[in-house]
Structure formats: structure tokens, C-alpha cells
Automatic annotation (TrEMBL):
Keywords: Disulfide bond, Glycoprotein, Immunoglobulin domain, Receptor, Repeat, Signal. It comes from the Eukaryota. Residues 426-437 have a biased composition (Basic and acidic residues). This is Cytokine receptor-like factor 1 isoform X1. Residues 409-419 have a biased composition (Basic residues).
Length: 437
């Protein structure tokens, strides 16, 4: 064949395609090399069988007859490619039982399942067949983009490569895994929004990054895309999803703090979805008195699962609720979404042991100050604690000691008052601080 002359595959590619009904069935699906003897007398084998070649390569093939009938020869044999008879000058006899074929500068296969190279007997019967795969190895996929419709699924699409067509069946697999641990997973629902796309319908974790990539494989090789790292919460959604978050914290317990009349302790358990070590959560608490609809919110709870409410009214029933806002340890580009509030939990503070007006106690005498500098200082101290130490990591030890001393002091004062006198020194009430705060 003269140098530079297009191969038979290139010549046939220039012709307009014929209707499918006029083509040989081998063009629709490559028939593997199963010999078929028209008269049953002869069989043959093509070598090489089912070769895979790069575009522009050459092929040397042979069709060798095997049979028990004396005089069986390769005379009269001919070749077809995708149902079209090849010119006789492309083949020649190697010996009495073998017909050789030489093809140069091969073009890409006309069908991804392979071109049909068939050896025929003189009467047109098929003696042997081979699939001829001519194409290119896959290129590195790129331009991966993903989105979620409901924050529980993920749809991704990609571009196969700059050259595009490989002329061979190329398998694309979308792989994904949790970034910091876990095994590779393979997407299974392909072609959902186009030829190069896949949909992951469920079982995705929130608030932690995923690694996503595409692997392309065909008979001539494989290629892998760059890894895309994303959090499902961070991808653009189509359309905008309804708010999705975790369940509220379960097992919220509210209890008294010893005999302290103005405090309650709140404890809860992290939602099951956040038990993974990659997750954290920040919490909010709100509370109200029994006969009110106005809630007070405590924001500075951080990621603790317990909190002490201070500065409450003695002898009062409170309803308490907790909610959480989850996020990943390694961060997310978008703020998390607050859960619903937990079911209200009720508890009451201890009743105050200080008697109220009209209780028959000794009232302060005229001209006696109701609160001196020491009391004002303690009230300022209490106010600071109420403002800064709700649920932070500050120790409540000083505050607890002060409250216990105040309650003990009130008990002592009340005992004296019930005897008809008030404790005095130098004509004025004395406020005594504890030895240690």
C-alpha cells in the first residue's frame, strides 16, 4: 500500500453511512472469532485475535485454514471490514492455507465495541472473525462540578478530556470517600443529567469534607482526574433546599444545684449524628418561668454538654430547652443550621429561706441604711458573674462559696429576728465577708 494513502477504515469513514438495514449485522455488534464454515468442511483462525491498536498504527493479520478435506487451500479467500469487502491488493497468500492482510495508518474504530474483521470462503461463508479495536487512551477528566438538591444527595458531572472521542468504549467511574478516613465508594447512577454525570442518592454525611474524583479506563489505558474536595453543605444547590440539620439534643436534664436558690444545672447528650469524632457542635439554651411566654436565650454555651443557669428567681418553676448547630472540626465554608429546640424540661429552684414582709420579723430601724458599701460590692460581684459566667469555662467555686455564706448569714439573722432583736454592733448592722472567697 503506498505510503501516506489512507487506510480502509479512513476511506469507509468518508462515505455517508448507509441505513442500518443495509449493513451487515457484524457492524452493529462485533462478532468474536468463532469460526463458521459455510459447508462445514473447513474452519479457519485469524491471528492476532481481537487486537487493540493506537490510531495511525499498522496491522498484519492472517487467516489460516484448518480442515480434514484434502486440497483445502486459501485460494479464493477474502477479507471484509465492517461488512465491506477489502481490496484484493491489501492481501496476499503466504502459503496454500494462509491468507495475509496488511492495513496501514488505521483510523479510529467506527463503533466502540470494535470493528469486525472477517475472513470469508470463496462462496461468501464466514470462516473466522476478529474484533479490531483502534483508538486512543483516555485523557484525564476535568472540570468536575457537583451540587445537592436536598443536602442528602449529590450529583456530579465532568468533562472527559480535551480530545474528547477515544473511539473505544471508555468507562468513567465517579469515586468518593470521606477525606480523613473511610474507604473508596463508587457512584452507581450514571447519565442522570448527561453522558458524563452520576448521582449519589443518599447516605452522605454532613459537616465533613468529601474527596471526589473520576477514573477513566479503556483498552489502551486509564487516567484519573484531580481530586475535588467539598462539603455537601458548601455546594451550590439546584434548586435551593429546605433547611436541613441534625435532630435536637436528646436527654435534656435540669436539676437543682444543692441548696442554691437561684441556680439550675442543665445537662444534655449530643445528637447521634454528631457522635463521630470529626464533628463538633455549638449549643444554645433558652428558659422561661412557668407563667410567661418570654424566653431568655443563653448564647455562650460553646461545645459543652452542660451549663449552669445563675441569677434565677427562688422558688420558681422554669422550662428549659436546648438546640445545636453542628460543624466539622476542619470547618465548613458556610454556617451550620440550628436544629429545632428540644422538648421543654421543667425544674424549680429552691424556695428562699428569707422571710418576706409581714412575717413578724424585726424590720430595720429608721435611719438604718438598707444596703451598705459591702452589700453593693457583693451585688456588683453577683451581677458580673451573671453576665460573664453563665456557661463559660469560668469556675463557679467563688460564686458558690459566696452564695452559701449569704444563705447561712440570712439564716443566722432570721434566728435572731425571731427572738425579737436584730444583730447590731456599734449601733449599725454589720455585713461579714467569708474568710475565703
Amino acid at each position: 500500500m503506498p505510503a501516506g494513502r489512507p487506510g480502509p477504515a479512513a476511506q469507509s469513514a468518508r462515505r455517508p453511512p448507509r441505513p442500518l438495514s443495509s449493513l451487515w449485522s457484524p457492524l452493529l455488534l462485533c462478532v468474536l472469532g468463532v469460526p463458521r464454515g459455510g459447508s462445514g468442511a473447513h474452519t479457519a483462525v485469524i491471528s492476532p485475535q481481537d487486537p487493540t491498536l493506537l490510531i495511525g498504527s499498522s496491522l498484519q493479520a492472517t487467516c489460516s485454514i484448518h480442515g480434514d478435506t484434502p486440497g483445502a487451500t486459501a485460494e479464493g479467500l477474502y477479507w471484509t471490514l465492517n461488512g465491506r469487502r477489502l481490496p484484493s491488493e491489501l492481501s496476499h497468500l503466504l502459503n496454500t492455507s494462509t491468507l495475509a492482510l496488511a492495513l496501514a495508518n488505521l483510523n479510529g474504530s467506527r463503533q466502540q465495541s470494535g470493528d469486525n474483521l472477517v475472513c470469508h470462503a470463496q462462496d461468501g461463508s464466514i470462516l473466522a472473525g476478529s474484533c479490531l479495536y483502534v483508538g486512543l487512551p483516555p485523557e484525564k477528566p476535568f472540570n468536575i462540578s457537583c451540587w445537592s438538591r436536598n443536602m442528602k444527595d449529590l450529583t456530579c458531572r465532568w468533562t472527559p478530556g480535551t480530545r474528547g472521542e477515544t473511539f473505544l468504549h471508555t468507562n468513567y467511574s465517579l469515586k468518593y470517600k470521606l477525606r480523613w478516613y473511610g474507604q473508596d465508594n463508587t457512584c452507581e447512577e450514571y447519565h442522570t443529567v448527561g453522558p458524563h454525570s452520576c448521582h449519589i442518592p443518599k447516605d452522605l454525611a454532613l459537616f465533613t469534607p468529601y474527596e471526589i474524583w473520576v477514573e477513566a479506563t479503556n483498552r489502551l489505558g486509564s487516567a484519573r482526574s484531580d481530586v475535588l474536595t467539598l462539603d455537601v453543605l458548601d455546594v451550590v444547590t439546584r434548586p435551593a433546599p429546605p433547611p436541613v440539620t441534625t435532630d435536637p439534643p436528646p436527654d435534656v436534664h435540669v436539676s437543682r444545684v444543692g441548696g442554691l436558690e437561684d441556680q439550675l444545672s442543665v445537662r444534655w447528650v449530643s445528637p447521634p449524628a454528631l457522635k463521630d469524632f470529626l464533628f463538633q457542635a455549638k449549643y444554645q439554651i433558652r428558659y422561661r418561668v412557668e407563667d410567661s411566654v418570654d424566653w431568655k436565650v443563653v448564647d455562650d454555651v460553646s461545645n459543652q454538654t452542660s451549663c449552669r443557669l445563675a441569677g434565677l428567681k427562688p422558688g420558681t418553676v422554669y422550662f428549659v430547652q436546648v438546640r445545636c448547630n453542628p460543624f466539622g472540626i476542619y470547618g465548613s465554608k458556610k454556617a451550620g443550621i440550628w436544629s429545632e429546640w428540644s422538648h421543654p424540661t421543667a425544674a424549680s429552684t429552691p424556695r428562699s429561706e428569707r422571710p418576706g414582709p409581714g412575717g413578724g420579723v424585726c424590720e430595720p430601724r429608721g435611719g438604718e441604711p438598707s444596703s451598705g458599701p459591702v452589700r453593693r460590692e457583693l451585688k456588683q460581684f453577683l451581677g458580673w458573674l451573671k453576665k460573664h459566667a453563665y456557661c463559660s469555662n469560668l469556675s463557679f467555686r467563688l460564686y458558690d462559696q459566696w452564695r452559701a455564706w449569704m444563705q447561712k448569714s440570712h439564716k443566722t439573722r432570721n434566728q435572731h429576728r425571731t427572738r425579737g432583736s436584730c444583730p447590731r454592733a456599734d449601733g449599725a448592722r454589720r455585713e461579714v465577708l467569708p474568710d475565703k472567697l
